[in-house]
Predict the 3D structure of the following.
Amino acid sequence: MGSLLSAISGQFAKMLILGTMFPVIILSALNILLIAPLLPQTAFLPGLVQKIAVGEEKWPAVIFTLVVLVLTGLLYDLNIPIIRVYEGYPWQNTFIGHGLGYLQKLRLRKAQNLAGQLLEQPSDPDLDACQTTLNVFLGTELPDTEEWILPTRLGNVIRCFERYSSLAYGMDAIVFWPRLVAKIDSGFASTIDEAKTAFDFMLNLSFLSALTCLAAIGIGLAIPVPIEWHFFFPWLWRAGFFFFLSVVFYNLAINRALAWGVQVRAAFDLYRLDLLTALGYQQKPLSYQEERALWFKLSSQILYPDQRIDPLPYNGGPTRVIPYPTDITLTVRRALLKQEPNLWIPVQIGLTNPDTRQVVSLFVIDALPDGYAYVPDSATASSGGLAVRRLAPLELFLGPIAPGGVLTITYAIRPAATQGK
């Protein structure tokens, strides 16, 4: 996310310096001060740095700068793998991964059970506040179902805002985020960059501290010394210090990930309809259910372009169908029948369910011809229930449709000038 956005907002240099170079400089300084004096080969480094600081040595300063730049570039290129390690992807199927994942699932179950209990309680200001806090926790700290749980808290925080677009709008974040980035204003993109930069700063400090901790332990064990406390203590307290720093910065990275997630959610909220237009589609969803069905259909088209999927029309036809489940595609046939003596024109819509699953319910939104109005109480369905939800445009709620079944809707329109006669 960061690389794409920084190209738009012009913040690449700022992201690289603040998010990656500063952690390298900070940990390099700590290593020179704390680790280097304990090794005969590097004990000269603190004195050399002091000479560089007062301008007595030039070439070592150049070499030190080159080392920092190389480490910065390497750390920047490893940004995504490092994040995935902290999320738990590479080791989630190990013994430790299963154990930590189970603990995260217990957190989710406990939170969901508590949310259910609060819903059953009578309204009370204190309970309402608790429920709001719990809902925020479930929306930002843990995924919606156990199948999406990761072993680490950071992984679940990031998974939550990765899942947001799918839960809220039916948009696959992996499919649409690279395309959405192109529609984000540079001013808003810079706010996302800043949140990601703060996250990278904390996570890189945690990662480099953990590496230093492991290096301190490894070097301490590798040096042949008598097994006595005073020989190991200098390495142990330094390893403990860097381990402490790693944990502190990890928790700060979680806090920054929450702020980053707020910005990513807002990007989908604000720019998704601009993305729809940029993809060439002129139709605008008229309801929440229609929008979810529309984005789900587009996700399938983009993910599986070689499959036989009926493409979404660029200009919406007169009849829109929003089934549940939304991944079922119905065949629609619409016809205007012969005008009757009372000037009524029957409209017939045939819906066929080619899927092996049942359509539980569906919305049908039908655009009436200009100058015509719906005849009240004229809508009928060949099976199931029917309810008129809205008149302009006409919106009907129906269902169910059995697998392979056909549902026929009939209603009448008449010239608007005769409405009420």
Observations:
- The two ends are 60 Å apart (CA to CA).
- The longest strand covers residues 406-415.
- The longest helix spans residues 229-278.
- The chain has two domains: 2-88+152-275, 318-418.
